[in-house]
Amino acid sequence: MRDFRLSLAQIRPRLGNVDANLVLHHQYVERALAERSDVVVFPEQSLTGYFLSDLVSHVALRRDDPAFLTLRELSRDIAIVFGFVEESADHRYLAAAAYLHRGAFVHVHHKVYLVTYGLFDEARDLAAGESLRAFDTEVGRQAMLICEDLWHASAASVVTADGADVILGLSSSPGRGLAGARRALGSAETWRTLNKLYAQLFACYTVHCNRVGYEDGVNFWGGSEVVGPDGESLARAPEFDEALVSVQLTDRELRRQRTRLPLRRDENVALTQRELARIAAGRAALPHG
After folding, report:
1. How does 173-191 read in b/e, with b if 16+ C-beta sit within 10 Å?
2. Residue range(s) defining the domain that contains residue 50
3. Residue numbers in the chain where pLDDT is lower than 50
């Protein structure tokens, strides 16, 4: 990985209004450029808003849609990571995270784990993604995961085994519950635990960009954060307010942590693969219904 500067664009998207959200993206990309950032990261479904329900088919985009022209042009000088709903060739709708740079889609990740509990019913309108991949960029090998993906440790394990030095996590996380003696926001405490845990376990940078604002009476808490490979928080946005937060990521910190704790080096991927295949075969043999 080469050293680079990253900005978190903690925004308040307008539900179902792609045009207004494109303007908002333009504004934050310009601010990130002014801070000389190499990469700017937006939240989950940043172009569309989150609780779309029947709006899904109206806001879904294909990669060749003219709506992306402005972002393509802006990406000549900065990599833009953003969330949208992608329509596939066979008219499925998928929650997507895109890495756009030099006018092209470098990689698109589709949310694998759709949420169907509590406030959420994503599987009603969206199809699940079917792959977990790291990908190469000008600043190093990265991976994108979307919200619930990060609540499954297997997803982070797979993309770091695939060589990701940076996990870019996009979320639309509501504020829920209270935790601990400090009575801190429960969802915030859980996310901060996940960010720190993955950074330390997989000796990588974890980048979590969450949104703010209200939709259907639900409040999104923000608190976007970058955590270094030693588990230390390097930058954190305020809760509940829009913000742009920038931070420098260095290869030196990766090297230092991986030398001190060579957990990635010692990870036995072949063993894990073999045991998971055994478990999957056992489950397949169980009677159904």
Report:
1. bbbeeeeeeeeebebbbeb
2. 4-285
3. none
